[in-house]
From TrEMBL:
The chain crosses the membrane at residues 26-45, 57-81, 93-114, 126-146, 158-176, 211-228, 248-266, 278-302, 308-330, 337-355. It holds the Pfam family Na_Ca_ex. PANTHER family: SODIUM-POTASSIUM/PROTON ANTIPORTER CHAA (PTHR37958), SODIUM-POTASSIUM_PROTON ANTIPORTER CHAA (PTHR37958:SF1). Coiled coil: none annotated. It is found in: Membrane. Residues 27-179, 213-354 form the Sodium/calcium exchanger membrane region domain. The keyword Transmembrane helix applies. This is Calcium:proton antiporter. Keywords: Membrane, Transmembrane, Transmembrane helix. Its main location: membrane. It is a multi-pass membrane protein.
Length: 357
């Protein structure tokens, strides 16, 4: 029994034990340790599955799995959160976009350029992902701040329905492009250009090992999201005592939820597989919007909570800056340490302005 097998099971059992209660004392640190272990185990099993099924299916599997569980978490909090949950979907989706497009991309470029100086990726596939993210975030999080049918930064029911359908259609189109029609655009690129073939990798795991890793991956992701929610009251109390804005709680939870994908992206970048890292980063951002908004739109029919989706002025400025810099990074098909620094600087600004708005 390896630690990657035992840790997700222990984390899931501890989640079942503490669900619905607020941990205190030593239990907080025990759950934090199990949370960290579940994150590392999730990365291991995600890489095993990805090795078996190949890119870009591996990155897509992890992105969709994390997002589906994240959506379930948002809906459960909306049901029990009342008026305080009005901006939860917006804050979570925007935090996910910034973490993915600025933080994950920046770290991937950093580790991809430290050794090789220049990191190569496929501009066609990466540009398509970035365009999808920009379209989704504009249709769902930017437009509500400018529509006039409803007061405040929110959609009318018909507008929300349109945004939900458009998001789902764009996400399905993105998946079909990534996995069927133009899969070669999303395959890892070798140093100096050229696509890596399946023969460039070690022997893939067996079908039994892959199935076991897939099950343990789902268990680990459920444990990560569940323990993040369980630890959130402790985080919220610490944030309140520190005098920080309430939005910090959502960012911390989003960071915890996206940690498995972040670590997987960094490990791929260290192996000079930058395209895999970008598939994880931008694919996660696409899934976070493309799946979250339709699910929230459906849930809003039964949950009597005002849904505020429109971004504020500071968020809009950060979003425009991030999309512009990302476009300039993607166009050449290669990047240097400078691009890594730009993305990480924007991510640092996002974190700083969340703490000090």
């Amino acid at each position: 029994m390896r630690w990657t097998t035992v840790t997700p099971v222990l984390a899931a059992c501890s989640l079942a034990f503490v669900w619905g209660r607020t941990p205190e004392g030593v239990l907080v640190f025990v759950l934090a340790a199990l949370l960290a272990g579940a994150v590392l185990a999730a990365v291991h099993h995600a890489e095993t599955v990805a090795h078996r099924i190949g890119e870009p299916f591996g990155a897509l599997t992890l992105a969709v799995a994390v997002t589906v569980i994240e959506v379930s978490l948002i809906i459960s909090v909306m049901v029990s959160g009342g008026e305080k949950a009005a901006t939860l979907a917006r804050d979570t989706a925007f935090a996910a976009v910034m973490i993915c497009t600025a933080g994950m991309v920046g770290l991937s470029l950093l580790f991809g350029t430290i050794r090789g100086r220049t990191a190569f990726f496929n501009a066609e596939g990466t540009g398509g992902m970035l365009a999808t993210v920009a379209s989704l975030v504009t249709l769902t999080l930017v437009l509500p701040s400018f529509t006039t049918t409803q007061p405040g930064p929110r959609f009318a029911p018909s507008q929300l329905a349109f945004a939900a359908v458009a998001s789902l259609v764009l996400y399905v189109l993105f998946v079909l492009t990534q996995t069927v029609r133009h899969r070669d655009y999303f395959l890892p690129v070798a140093l100096g250009g050229g696509t890596l073939s399946e023969a460039d990798h070690a022997d893939p795991p067996t079908a039994r090992q892959t199935l076991t890793s897939l099950v343990l991956l789902l268990v680990a992701l459920v444990a990560v999201v569940g323990l993040a929610k369980t630890e959130s009251p402790v985080i919220e109390t610490a944030v309140r005592k520190a005098g920080l804005p309430h939005g910090v709680v959502g960012v911390v939870i989003a960071l915890l939820v996206l940690l498995p994908e972040t670590l997987a992206a960094v490990r791929a970048a260290r192996r000079q597989l930058l395209q895999t890292s970008l598939n994880l980063a931008l694919g996660s951002a696409t899934a976070s919007i493309g799946l979250t908004i339709p699910a929230i739109a459906i849930a809003s029919v039964w949950v009597d909570v005002p849904l505020i989706l429109g971004l504020g002025p500071t968020q809009l400025v950060l979003l425009v800056l991030t999309m512009g810099v990302s476009a300039l990074t993607v166009i050449p098909g290669h990047a240097t340490l400078l691009q890594a620094g730009l993305h990480l600087a924007i991510f640092a600004a996002f974190l700083f302005l969340t703490v000090s708005p």
